[in-house]
Amino acid sequence: MTAHDAKAGDVARQPIGQFLDALAARVPAPGGGATAALHAAQAAALLSMVARYTTGKKYADCANLVAVVIEVAEVGRAAALRLASEDATAFTAVTEAYGLPRATPEDTERRSAAIAAALAAAAGPPAKVIRVARSLVTLAEALLPVANPNVITDVAAAAEAARAAATTARLNVEINLGGIRHEQVRSELLDVVALVDPLTERAAEVERSVRAALT
């Protein structure tokens, strides 16, 4: 499979080197949207790992919480990987819409409508990544007080990865907003974008708490 072919592949099944080759290639996708989703997937995986180290008799009192963290993190990881693939597919559709003919007024109108629809669709996966990232920051906050201290820095790493997922995804929502005609879609996307700043502050607080615990 070439780097160009990999852009349309299942990100979850690609070796990381192959994905990075595709990311580095001069092709429309994968790009920042898929990268945002993979940040979220890594955050989820880190939380699952910390939770699995927070088991046994020593952690019996928080066993239920840890079980929930693992379950929700695994769902989030699967969702993030799916969104990475969806983002690549959606952005490819945008580039195809821009390539439609515009020789006549009718062609131009059809092209404009196709671009607007493709941009709205392309904003969908990164908007969902923001919601996944928010749920992962919530998991990090819940896990931090009970986490195995030997892997506590990985809770902060997870929060930082979730923050990066959200801020990167926000950029990929915002770049599409200008071409979206449907006001309700625009309003819903703006509501999701508004989640990012509070999320980043919460992620930063997790990191501060972990660093304080190390001193």
Structural write-up:
With 215 residues, the protein is an all-alpha fold. The chain has eight helices and no strands. Helix 4 (63-98) runs antiparallel to helix 5, helix 5 packs antiparallel against helix 6 (152-177) and helix 5 packs parallel to helix 8 (196-214). It starts with a helix and ends with a helix. The relative contact order is 0.14. Residues 1-8 have low confidence and may be disordered.
What percentage of amino acids are in beta strands? under 5%
Main β-sheet, in a few words?
Answer: none
Portion in helices:
over 70%
SSE topology string: HHHHHHHH
- How many β-strand runs? 0
Helix count equals 8
In terms of per-residue confidence, which ranges show pLDDT below 50 for 5 or more consecutive residues?
1-8
Overall shape: elongated
Nearest-angstrom radius of gyration?
Answer: 19 Å
Distance between the termini: 49 Å
Classify the secondary structure makeup into a structural class: mainly alpha
Mean pLDDT over all positions: 92
